[in-house]
From TrEMBL:
SUPFAM superfamilies associated with the record: Zn-dependent exopeptidases
PROSITE patterns on file: EF_HAND_1, PROKAR_LIPOPROTEIN
Designated name of the protein: M28 family peptidase
GO BP annotations, alphabetical order: proteolysis
Organism domain of life: Bacteria
InterPro entries: EF_Hand_1_Ca_BS (IPR018247), M28_fam (IPR045175), Peptidase_M28 (IPR007484)
Amino acid sequence: MQRILVFICATFLVTACSTSKNKKKDKENSPAKYAKTITAEELKEMLYTYASDEYEGRKTGEAGQKKAIEFIKNAYVENKIPSPLGDGDYFQEIPESYFHGGIKASENVLAYIKGSEKPEELIIISAHLDHIGISKSGEINNGADDDGSGTVAVLEIAEAFKAAVNKGYGPKRSILFLHVTGEEIGLFGSRYYADVDPIFPLENTVANLNIDMIGRIDPKHRGNPNYLYLIGSDRLSKELHELSEQVNKEYVNLTFDYKYNKKNDPNRFYYRSDHYNFAKHNIPVIFYFNGTHADYHRPTDTPDKIEYELLAKRTKLIFHTAWELANREERIKVD
């Protein structure tokens, strides 16, 4: 009887230890842990620099835009997130001849986390780095929401994924953090990447999550700011749409507004941001958007008007969605 009791106790201890280790592992591997690295304070600190007068409105090819790409590059270097271009080169050069109307040569900025199990498959998280520059009156268009909010969101998402990598829980699929230029003058940077020089084969690109203006509240939602417009999530993949809804309910619980996703939307937002250059290649996309406001494309789009807690919450949603896309067993299907 004594031997039986010793055996039972030993078995119980082994099981308890194993359960404890599994719980610890599950906690370490939880995306919620790494989402906590995305904070309103860090987003605010970055955006007050990125959307400052020093950057002169980040017009494509101009001095302020060159400062912007250095800011983005330095953020990746500081977080030890490499570029897929190698040798410390984070810039995909786009020649002046690709543009028109006297626009000077410009650059996309690329950073990359290699997948641990399916490195050939890729999730692209994108935002445009440019804005409209200086008005004829001499006023600087800072573009804090458009698209400073998306730019700093991508940087925070990258930092969250790198925190997981540092703990040994990097994504199974690769992640490309893509900051594109020339959006305001015709989606040039994303078109160059997709049509001219895709660094990774487009057929291996699972999805594009594109972030363009997620720091403000539009007039329609003043009474309920816990929202976000989603555009394109069901256009090419029902599975992507369902995954997006499930992730939101599990982790963030925003109210999704699909008003601008309607095919007869007179604003045609589906065609007006960088995700479209991936969608036209049959790559499933989601475009995250807070809607327009009175400061859209005006010098009054400044960082003091950004809702930073809401920006952080929306950024966490996109991180969780990217995490699920990168770590699920099968890549999402294109309908």
